[in-house]
Prior knowledge:
- The structure holds 2 protein chains of 2 kinds.
- Helix content of chain A is about 65%, strand content about 5%.
- Chain A is α+β, with helices and mostly antiparallel strands.
- In chain A, helix 2 (about 25-65) runs antiparallel to helix 5 (about 100-120) and helix 7 (about 130-165) packs antiparallel against helix 13 (about 315-345).
- The longest helix of chain A is centred in the N-terminal third of the chain and has 44 residues, at about 25-65.
- In chain B, strands 6-7-8-3-9-10 form a 6-stranded mixed beta sheet, with helices on both faces. In chain B, strands 2-1-4-5 form a 4-stranded antiparallel beta sheet, covered by helices on one side.
- The two termini of chain B are about 35 Å apart.
- Residues about 235-240 of chain B have low confidence and may be disordered.
Amino acid sequence: MTALTVPARPEEEDASLRPVPWRRMAGVTWRQHRFALTGVAALLGVLSVCLWLAGLRLHHASAAAAACRPAGSLACGGLAGTFNGMAGFLANGIILQVVPVLIGAFAGAPVLARELETGTYRYAWTQGFGRRRWALAKLVSLAVAVTAAAGLFSLLLSWYYQPYFAAGNQALGLSEITPFFPGLFDLHGVAFAAWTLAAFAIGALAGMLIRRVVPAIAATLAAYAGLAFAAGGLLREHYLAPLLTSSPNVPASAWVMSQWYTKGGKFAEGSPPLGLMNRFCTSLPPGPGKPSWGTFAQCLARHGYTQWTSYQPASRFWAFQWIESGWLLALSVLLIAAAVWLVRRRAA
Amino acid sequence: MNIIEADGLGKRYRSTWALRACTLAVPAGHVAALVGPNGAGKSTLLNLAVGLAQPSAGEVTVLGGRAAGSPAALDGIAFVAQDTPLYKTLPVADMLYVTRNLNRRFDQAFAEARLAELGIPLKRRAGKLSGGQQAQLALTLALARRPRLLVLDEPVAMLDPVARHDFMATVLAAAKDGVSVLLSSHVLTGLERVASYLVLLSRGRVRLAGTVDDLLATHRQASLEDLALSYLRETPAEVAK
């Protein structure tokens, strides 16, 4: 009988054949999103050149000021002033804070929103590749691409900001910033790439939910801003319990959470201790720079007041980086999974 | 083998049923026309058949028992949606590339030969093509997948008469090669030149289904148009019952 050689239902053989290989989505994704991807590359490329040029000058100024002898001389003060005044608009990091969300909004939000807005999802989701796999392959490969690009860029950022974090800057009269500084913490280390990934994932899900490109981009910007402010203002300081010290000299690299003063074991005043300062320490010499908190603390200590500081030491920088990147990665995975789940569920 | 089989199939969008208690079995080897007025549930039935929508009630299988929307079903079905959506910014050659890489089979030589025949340049962006050319491109992409079932949602609604004729000629040629076709249309005129099987939908329900020959013989109507019209006019009375 033919039944032995020919399957009774030949279509069953078809059905059990292997699915279209994942790797085929690479070329498809590139062809569909090359404008977004080259846009990201161009943006980061231009910024890289600018940062590199500015960074060379900054590093040069920092080295010149640090090597100046005798420290404290007028000439050295001039060099320090040059370093401190350099590229102030970059020093606080605010401008570069928008880079992750720009990438996320313009590369992430349109991926699904454009398909839904123009109706092409009816083409894409009925091809042999399968809609769930299609969405997964697209979102994951694009997420990896933008995260890798952001990771490379953040190497340059880390290099650029290095001079501000050098221990001993303060003694030389140079700007010394804690690496936890709100505008800078997520611009160096691994957090920059993690924030870019999160922005992309927010954009992808917003596109799937809102189904239109421009509103999805706007929603991504808003949601990202909210998340970034919440993380910087509320979450970050709680990653690890702060340390407490009664030493008047807290290093400039530490992230000070709060400060208060006690006398004889009793709470005297919070920070800034304006009442105490006006009573006891008005005679402090103004000096060339501003008198530091340490100077006030020493003055108050002479009158029997103890300065308490709760702070995060700079040595915890990488722990904080990995904690923040870890939850951002987990959040991004959840958001992308939600987008893929919605693609599977969404009815025409 | 039935190219589409529905059993008690229903689809509800919020509180309204777009399709209700639909039971039907369309055998392979036909050009099956799904006809009915706008809002009758034609697009809903096709979306369910290609897996874009999930049933609210009942079930639907295609190509001899494959669950609609399953990988095995998508592998054998090519769907051309209403208004033939294409990636407008992609050149025609890239549309071929994308379709080829999203499917297990793709007859590149066939697609290129047909586009050359139609005078559609491979380098032109899909969005720069005329409406008729876009429809032909979408159809070519679908046929190059070598499907066993071609599903077309209102394929000629937006086309001028010449483009409409050319498009349907291509569909009929594919049908002659053994591809089953399921198409929806709200235009009744000239239906018998195209369809060999008819499913009449109105208000979300199947009113009539069968081969064109059988329907014309049993209902003693001169044309499918007359038959369809007589049924569509009866509908309100039937609903009132």
